[in-house]
Each structure stands twice: as structure tokens, then as C-alpha cells.
Amino acid sequence: MHLLDFEQGLAELEARIEELRQISGESEVNIAQEVGRLQGKLDRQLKALYARLTPAQKVLVARHPERPHAGEIIGRLIEDFTPLAGDRAFGEDPAILGGLGRFRGIPVAVLGHERGHDTESRLVHNFGMARPEGYRKAQRLMGLAGRFGLPVISLVDTAGAFPGVDAEARGQAEAIAAVLDAGLRLPVPFVAAVIGEGGSGGAIAIAAADRVLMLEHAIYSVISPEGCASILWRSAAHAGEAAEALRLTAQDLRTMNVIDEIIAEPPGGAHRGREAVIGVLGASIEKHLSQLSGIDGAKLVKTRAEKFLDMGIKLQERD
User: Is the four-CA dihedral 56, 51, 262, 102 of positive or negative sign?
Assistant: First the structure.
């Protein structure tokens, strides 16, 4: 497993556990007890380490290459998933996955940023950074959901919308604004989850939801720490200070009521317990969809709009 900078002290222990597991598989010697003892020690160290992560360290965890991505979560939570491609204006954008399926028996529309899991797939999905056609595809899916009364689930995981010249030429800002407007006007339940990195307008574009959930070690911010540091200090070397100032952790955002629930991750982060964290996320989505299911569409739209319009006022009053 890829170890982050602050996890290097665990490398020797993890290597010893892996070595013993291989020996156990290749011989008749039973060393399960020793493996269990070492695994317990590792779990305790991980729990202690992850209980005191700094915002800068949480940024590293949120960007961990082995965290569950949207495609994997959709594959495990959505039955009969049928992907729908294209924006009907320019083309397809693999940075945003979208389609129809069943979530625990309920027909739903699903969309999410997909970063990819290896070098080849990351290039295909442009590291989860969508172009205008990706956001227009999301807008099209929201329109279908509203027309046919399908709840919407979105999975947020992007460093931000793609900043390339081609994206700007095709109306990146307008596309983000349009899908934000579509999300706010949805007459159906809408639940969003920040599963990794929620960066800038590219993230909130598909997160203007009735309920916004966030994995425990995910981040959600108007700008990346590196981008903020480059503007304020003229050097990305101050990214740690920027991460602290941005208050981008799930814990900070829950305190400010920017998000509605924090989804617990296993000791050591979601990448160390993929099945478990996807299961907990699924249970939370089910709970919130159930709470929203009996509410009239017009009331959903009104309450959702008020939630986001009041957010800045409440934060200003708080400060």
C-alpha cells in the first residue's frame, strides 16, 4: 500500500505483517497469532495517528490514490446501472460518470467525478477534472431525474473543473453555473457525498443538494491549499498554513453547517477499509433519501435554495 509521508513510521510494521502472511501461505507453520498481534498493534497506531491529523495531512489522505472512487462506489451500491453519455451539444466527458440504476430497490439517477485508479485510467478520466460537456451531461441527467421523479445521488471527488483553454472556450463558467441552477431547482430528493477532494466550483457544481455528506478525512474548499498559498504567499511551500486557514476539513465544515453529516472512516482512512466505508456511506444515503422521500417537490426546492442562500449570512454572523 502507498504510504503517505506522515505514515512512514508504520512501514516496518506493515512490511513485517505482509512477510509473515506470505510465509504462512507458503508453509504449514501457523503464525496467525503473531500476525494478529502485529495487526492489532498497527490498528492502534493508525487510530492514534489518524485521530490527530492536521488539515495538511487530511489533504494528503483525501488525495490518496487508493481511496474508493465514484466508479467503485457506484458499482457496489447501484444495481442495474446504465451509464448515459454525452451532453447532446459537444461530446462525452469521462471525468463525470452518470446514469440510471437502482439504489436498494429505488430507481435513482447517479453522477460523480471519476479520477481513475491507475495512470492509464487517470488520463482517460482527466484526473476527475471535468470540462463543460461533463457539467452539461450532469445537467441533462438532473433534468431527466426531475422529469421522471428519480432521486439524485452525486459523488464529489475533484481537484476542480478543468482550467484548460479548450474548456474556457466552450463556456466552463456558464456550464458550472447552469448545473448549479439545475441542482437547486430539482423537484426530487438530492443527496451529495464528498468522498475525496471537493475542490472549488467544480465540486459544488454537483453538490447543491438537500443533504451534503462528507467522508471523515475528505476535504471541501473554494480553492486548493497550494493555489491559496500561491496567491497569498506567492509560494506553494505555505500550503500547510493555507490548509489550516481554509478550514477545509469535514469537522470544520460540519461545525459551520456547510455539510450535514460526517461519514466515519476506518482507522487509517477509507483506503484501508474500502468495503466498510462504502457500506456506511450507503446506509447514510439510504437514511437521508428516506427522510426526503415524502416531501413535496416545491418544498424541496424552496428549502434547498434557502439552505444555500442562508449559508453565507450565517457564517458572516458567526464570524
Answer: positive
For 48-104, how does the pLDDT look when each residue is reduced to its tens digit (9 = 90+)? 888 889 999 999 999 999 999 999 999 999 999 999 999 998 999 999 999 999 999
Q: What is the DSSP string of 103-139?
A: ETTEEEEEEEE---SSHHHHHHTGGG---HHHHHHHH
SS percent in the chain: helix, strand, coil, step 5:
55, 15, 30
3-state secondary structure of 158: strand
In eight-state DSSP terms, residue 157 is E
Distance CA 74, CA 66 (A): 16
**How many CB atoms are located within 10 Å of the residue 303 CB?**
12
Provide the residue count of the chain.
319
Q: What is the DSSP string of 272-308?
A: G-HHHHHHHHHHHHHHHHHHHTTS-HHHHHHHHHHHH
pTM of the model: 0.89
Contact 133, 173 (CB under 8 A): no
pLDDT, tens digit, 9 for 90 and up, residues 120-139 = 999 999 999 999 999 999 99
